[in-house]
């Protein structure tokens, strides 16, 4: 429900058929304010729906409202449509066996046309293609440029690599990190015989480039808390360059880096 204080065109949250994860385990339905108010009254709640929303709008802590002797049921018909996504990977061999490779990746997908509730399009722009110049053509361009640069440095003899470099473009990030999650699971199956196994020691690090096209005043590096190595390494590498860098410790991010962090890869 939207609540009596909401400035929306409809009390019901519109259905979204796009990019819904098939494995979602929590069912949710949208009801009108009138239905919600009736349920509150039937459940013995003395406060009105507006009073509850007023409290939330004022920043008060509002715990959930238990509804006594109220049962609610719904019949939902869901038809799944499956599509094939493709990850694209390249490898720059170092010639040094036994060292876990470094992976640099970015997601190659965006919202496309008719992006639904995920779109920030204005009125009259809803059906235009969402090209994703920043999210995430910028990250893809970054991965390709790094791959090209390192390959040329190695070819000219200026770069002595200690470990292989993996370069990856992930599919399905906008649908829930599907491409990178598939990759780490398949890697664990192939190398360890168990898709749920951790990949610690199989990949030395996974660097993720997501929405890097509009960073003007500061370069933001997230996920630094995933390893004690990062803070000092970033400071040392940046000292001769002097980039204005902002580091953030958070490790659970809504981007493909999380697929690797959950497998023990910083």
From TrEMBL:
One of its GO terms (biological process) is proteolysis. Signal peptide: none annotated. Residues 87-266 form the Peptidase M28 domain. GO terms for molecular function: metalloexopeptidase activity. It holds the Pfam family Peptidase_M28. InterPro entries: M28_fam (IPR045175), Peptidase_M28 (IPR007484). This is Peptidase M28 domain-containing protein. It comes from marine sediment metagenome.
């Amino acid at each position: 429900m939207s609540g009596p204080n909401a400035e929306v065109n409809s009390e019901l949250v519109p259905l979204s058929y796009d990019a819904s994860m098939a494995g979602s385990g929590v069912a949710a339905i949208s009801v009108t304010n009138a239905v919600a108010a009736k349920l509150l009254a039937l459940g013995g709640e003395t406060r009105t729906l507006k009073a509850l929303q007023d409290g939330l709008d004022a920043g008060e802590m509002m715990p959930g409202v238990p509804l006594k002797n109220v049962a609610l049921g719904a019949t939902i018909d869901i038809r799944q449509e499956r599509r094939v996504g493709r990850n694209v990977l390249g490898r720059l061999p170092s010639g040094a066996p036994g060292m876990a490779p470094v992976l640099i990746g970015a997601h190659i997908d965006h919202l496309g046309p008719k992006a639904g509730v995920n779109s920030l399009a204005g009125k009259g722009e809803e059906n235009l293609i969402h090209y994703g110049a920043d999210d995430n053509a910028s990250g893809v361009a970054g991965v390709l440029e790094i791959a090209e640069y390192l390959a040329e440095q190695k070819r000219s003899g200026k770069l002595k690599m200690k470990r292989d470099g993996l370069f990856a473009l992930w599919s399905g990030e906008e649908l829930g990190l599907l491409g990178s999650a598939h990759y780490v699971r398949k890697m664990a199956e192939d190398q360890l015989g168990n898709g749920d196994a951790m990949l610690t020691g199989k990949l030395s690090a996974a660097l993720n480039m997501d929405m890097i096209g509009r960073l003007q005043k500061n370069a933001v590096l997230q996920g630094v808390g995933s390893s004690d190595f990062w803070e000092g390494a970033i400071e040392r590498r940046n000292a001769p360059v002097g980039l204005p860098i902002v580091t953030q410790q958070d490790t659970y991010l809504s981007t493909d880096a999380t697929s690797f962090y959950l497998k023990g890869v910083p």
